[in-house]
Specification:
The protein contains 15 helices and 22 strands. By secondary structure, it is of the alpha+beta class. It has three domains: about 90 residues, Rossmann fold, CATH 3.40.50.20; about 55 residues, 2-Layer Sandwich (Dna Ligase, domain 1); about 240 residues, D-amino Acid Aminotransferase, Chain A, domain 1 (2-Layer Sandwich), CATH 3.30.470. Its cofactor is Mn(2+); Mg(2+). Pfam families: GARS_A, GARS_C, GARS_N.
């Protein structure tokens, strides 16, 4: 089978890499891909845009593509799946209606409230004045969210009323364009965040291994938010009993609520969860796609061929797929960022030592790279995701940091404390999970 992957980040490199491990996958095409997918054997980048649905459809039909896998949320929210399905193609990724679960926080919140899914209490506003009056009654901390897609920048966790008012004014003042003309104001939740990515064919839903992301740029989870500085899996805070609750209280009822709205959702339902100090899972947000960089930590542990998993979802045959098989160890992905990220950053620097890092036992997923005159150069803020699998988190960490030592990139930055919660968890079993 030939597979087409839409997207250009570390997530898409990991998807292509994992798909190519399957005997049945002959070739993978990436639209537009990056320097990693350009150099992966049996993988080719195509000079097409992820918004060129007709071009993508034509290529897929002419080249007999058996499965299209859509990585990012933007094309899903713009209806890529609807278009490609109308051309008779098999697609992993929800339709435009399903993608609203990520593309409109107000829509997602209404769905959760209707289905009684545990989440922060919230109110929706379309003008600034009542929103400001509202936060004056609730007090701080309080969370202000732009309704639409804002490239991960639409959320303010306001510690004071002044900060909340500033965020409200910024949203209605046009900071996020149309995405901020409606806002959701919600209760601030406490606890530990976990990403549960579940795969679904619209009828059956199954979680992948739980993962934890590190959104802040600085060690100890400090400083500005980023696209994600690293991830690890499995997250020990999610016991099998807690995963069962997540399945029963969150995943199943969300899928049922989607179905009730006539949505045939085939793809990833990514539940961003807060595990409260009482040990209860609550939804912070849903995404309609694989997480980045969670995917780079989760997929290396998957032993079931990925094409079989994605095809089962796209063809609505997930129930027939045997239980997913996983490596019993752990994986860690550490993101190597360009100097200056998440502010303005350097680009175009040659990256050395990638093959040495791989010889040291890691897999180097490219995120912001491109091939220039046969050399891999940096081309984004998050440049690489260096991943290692080991029998335990500690062993995976040792390998990953040893591999990073082999890399050469002018001014590169990475966090040295990825997976610190998991390490702390193993070291301090007496503590309440949210204290670790
Ligand atoms: P989102 O863009 O919805 O993922 O939100 C970005 C980040 O804001 C999340 O990863 C959380 O750290 C934080 N956040 C969002 N909603 C809440 C909430 N209700 N309570 C506490 N933190 C939140
Ligand atoms: N890792 C966060 C996200 O994919 O949205």
């Amino acid at each position: 089978m030939k597979v087409l992957v839409v997207g250009s980040g570390g997530r898409e490199h990991a998807l292509a890499w994992k798909l190519l491990q399957s005997e049945r996958v002959q070739e993978v095409f990436c639209i537009p891909g990056n320097g990693g997918t350009a150099t992966l054997p049996r993988c080719r980048n195509l000079a097409l845009s992820s918004t060129d649905f007709e071009g993508i459809g034509r290529f897929a039909l002419v080249n007999n593509i058996g499965l299209v896998v859509v990585g990012p949320e933007a094309p899903l929210a713009a209806g890529i799946t609807d278009y490609l399905q109308s051309q008779g193609l098999t697609v992993f990724g929800p339709t435009q209606a399903g993608a609203q679960i990520e593309a409109s926080k107000a829509w997602a919140k209404a769905l959760m409230q209707e289905a009684k899914i545990p989440t922060a209490a919230a109110q929706v506003f379309t003008t600034a004045e009542p929103a400001i009056a509202y936060v004056k009654t609730t007090g701080a901390p309080i969370v202000i969210k732009a309704d639409g897609l804002a490239a991960g920048k639409g959320v303010t966790v306001a510690a004071t009323i002044e900060e909340a008012i500033e965020a409200i004014e910024a949203a209605f003042g046009g900071q996020f364009g149309a995405a901020g003309q409606q806002i959701v104001i919600e209760e601030c939740l406490n606890g530990q965040e976990v990403s549960v990515l579940a795969i679904t064919d619209g009828i059956t839903i199954r979680p992948l291994l739980p993962a934890q992301d590190h959104k802040r740029i600085g060690e100890g989870d400090t400083g500005p938010n980023t696209g994600g500085m690293g991830a690890y899996a499995p997250a020990p805070i999610i016991s099998p009993a807690l995963m069962e609750r997540i399945q029963q209280e969150i995943l199943e009822p969300t899928l049922a609520a989607l179905r009730k709205r006539g949505i045939d959702y085939r793809g990833v339902l990514y539940a961003g969860l807060m595990i409260t100090p009482e040990g209860n899972p609550k939804v912070i947000e849903f995404n309609c796609r694989f997480g980045d960089p969670e995917t780079q930590a989760v997929l290396p542990l998957l032993e079931t061929p990925l094409d079989a998993v994605l095809l089962a979802c796209a063809q609505q045959k997930l129930e027939q797929l045997p239980p997913l098989s996983w490596n019993s160890g752990a994986a860690v992905c550490v993101v190597v960022a360009a100097q200056g990220y998440p502010g303005s950053y350097r680009k175009g620097d040659v990256i050395g030592g990638i093959s040495q890092a791989e010889t040291a036992g890691a897999t180097v997923f490219h995120a912001g790279t491109k091939l220039k005159q046969q050399q891999v150069v940096s081309d984004g803020g998050r440049v690489l995701g260096v991943t290692a699998v080991g029998p335990s988190i500690r062993e995976a960490l040792t390998q990953v940091y040893a591999a990073i030592e082999c890399l050469q990139l002018e001014g590169m930055y990475y966090r040295r404390d990825i997976a610190h919660r998991a390490v702390n968890y193993t070291d301090n079993p007496q503590l309440n999970p949210t204290q670790r």
